[in-house]
Amino acid sequence: MRKIAVLTGGGDCPGLNAVIRAIVKSATGYGLEVLGILDGFRGAVEGDFMPLTLKDVSGILPRGGTILGTTNRDNPFAYETKVNGLTQMVDRSDDVIRNLKERGVDALLAIGGDGSLNIALKLANKGLSVIGIPKTIDNDLMATDQTFGFQTAVDTAQEALDRLHTTAESHHRVMVLEVMGRYAGWIALYAGVAGGADVILIPEIPYNINRVALCIQKRAKLGKKFSIIVVAEGAKPLGGEMVVERMVSGRFDPIKLGGIGAKLGNDLEEHYGLETRVTVLGHLQRGGSPNAYDRVLSTRYGVAAVDAALEEEFGIMVALRGRDIVRVPLQEAVDQIKYVPLNDPLLLAARTFGMEMGD
Ligand code: F6P
Q: 93-102 and 114-125 helices cross at what angle (nearest 10)?
């Protein structure tokens, strides 16, 4: 083991730079060289690499984003390529393997969510020495208790809820906060509890709008003339569908969600006469400096990935289990989405102390 390469793929999140820093610092300590791959798998296909030294990672621990750039398009197994003047989707995975080989790379460390880790697994199945590192604010990766970036996103959503509370109270309004969470409602659940929301709507529990309105009306009868709702972008009404803003071609998951907050707000105003305002938190959840928890988790993941490379254990992902960082097969990581289970302890606690989940 002499040289490792690292890339960041998929949507960014707070803590990516902290992982890169940990990788470079521990690898350098072991006498390894590190190459950074620019813009995720695009750079791997195109051969866009840069050496990463201690100097490059100095001061990046608190910085949001990724110094390497990222993309959630560019899948090497279906890569937009001009063939005889026509754009076609071509399998360019051999180019990735060739580019790494030509530069003497012994192991690829792929930091990503389900899309990037699926690609990493396919490359591992072609014989590449790959190690995955779990990232996503959605926290929906199976096989790890937590992805880095999630806790910081929860902090951001909780702060937004605190701010919405004061203005909701002054104006006697209903405030809806739409947060990210495509298929799993972890951010909505944790931020909702931390921010004292009255209603939490998550993709795992289709909501009944009557129940939501009833909860708000009951509060009003008790003298609480405002209410706070947090809704995950992937939530849907009973018998209804997720609200899709548009389709984006070339992405691992082409669905761009957005609009459930507006739908909910309209329904509450039109059918129940409840004055409602809607805030979409969007990419504010993905930007900015990682909190202390995510800096620590990112650092541990980076160090653990280098350790795995030194021990030549490939086709795995580093994962958090309880307080330990362990190695799990990449396959296990991408097999299924980690939904909020209906018996999740926090979900049950939220119900017990009276939070409305819409069902
Ligand atoms: O997967 C993380 C995520 O933040 C989702 O919650 C969200 O739907 C998506 O990324 C948005 O991605 P984009 O950057 O393409 O808008």
A: 70
